[in-house]
Amino acid sequence: MPTGQDGPQMTLQNIIDTAIPRNARKIIARELDCTPRQARRIVEGRVPSRFRAALIRMLENAIDRNERELRRLREEIRLDEYATTRQARKGVAARDMGQGG
């Protein structure tokens, strides 16, 4: 992996693998309206100049979708933890009320 002044740099292949973990070639071919062979070359890191701007936009959109999904999942986990904590507190309160008499 290439390194820069601030440490390791991500290659285009790494970015594509991260942003589009499954079926990257098919998605790139569909989104960029290119041939499967061109899509394979793009996934391998060889991007023709005419596809460069479109690829960057596509990757930015994919990363945005992934970030939204991650935020949604984090919120779901937070709500689940809240509900679990609330249930536990109710159980403790009910137990304490039963022993207080």
Explain what you see.
This protein is mainly alpha-helical and 101 residues long. It has one domain (3-99). It is built from four helices and two strands. It has helices at 12-19, 24-32, 36-43, 49-99, and strands at residues 3-4, 7-8. A two-stranded antiparallel ribbon has the order 1-2. A hairpin with a 2-residue loop joins β1 (3-4) and β2 (7-8). α1 packs across α4 and α2 crosses α3 (36-43). The longest helix has 51 residues, at 49-99. The radius of gyration is 24 Å and the shape is elongated. 5% of the residues are buried. The mean pLDDT is 86.
Distance between the termini: 68 Å
- Secondary-structure element order, as H and E? EEHHHH
Report low-confidence residues grouped into runs of 5 or more. Answer: none
Whole-angstrom Rg: 24 Å
Strand content: under 5%
How would you sum up the major sheet? 2 strands, antiparallel
- Give the total of domains: 1
Q: What is the helical fraction, as a range of percent? A: over 70%
By secondary-structure content and strand pairing, the structural class works out as mainly alpha
Write down how many β-strands occur, each being a DSSP E stretch of 2 or more residues.
2
Order of the strands making up the biggest sheet: 1-2
